[in-house]
Write a structure and sequence with these properties.
Elements (H helix, E strand, L loop, with lengths): L1 E6 L2 E6 L3 E5 L8 E4 L2 E6 L2 E4 L7 E21 L4 E19 L1
Antiparallel strand pairs: 1-2, 1-5, 3-8, 4-7, 5-6, 7-8
């Protein structure tokens, strides 16, 4: 069974047993999560979309906090002596989809 689920404003295509990185979700390792905002399901060729979807995606947190790669934002204006350097690392949570019910 395949599902498209909306997690923290982003859409992910998931199957049972998949592990993926999603934007940071509060919780500890081993906690279970339920995502009720399922946009599409495909069950052996039977596709249901929109309000016809009656599924819930259940997942487990594998790693509570994972930091992404460092991103540098550098601004400069030539001949003015203006230089600004900012950087950040985006936080993610690694989850594993246990079932689509």
């Amino acid at each position: 069974m395949l599902a498209v689920v909306k997690i923290a404003g982003q859409q992910f295509k998931v199957k049972a047993g998949d592990s993926l990185y999603v934007p940071h979700i509060e919780g500890n390792n081993g906690d279970t999560l339920e995502f009720s905002e399922v946009l599409l399901t495909d069950n052996d060729g039977t596709i249901s979309v929109g309000s016809a979807v009656k599924a819930i995606v259940k997942a487990e947190i594998l790693t509570a906090l994972v930091q992404g790669d460092k991103v540098i934002a550098f601004k400069m204006k030539r001949r003015k002596g203006f230089r600004k350097k900012h950087g950040h690392r985006t936080h993610y949570t690694k989850i594993q989809v246990t079932e689509i019910a």
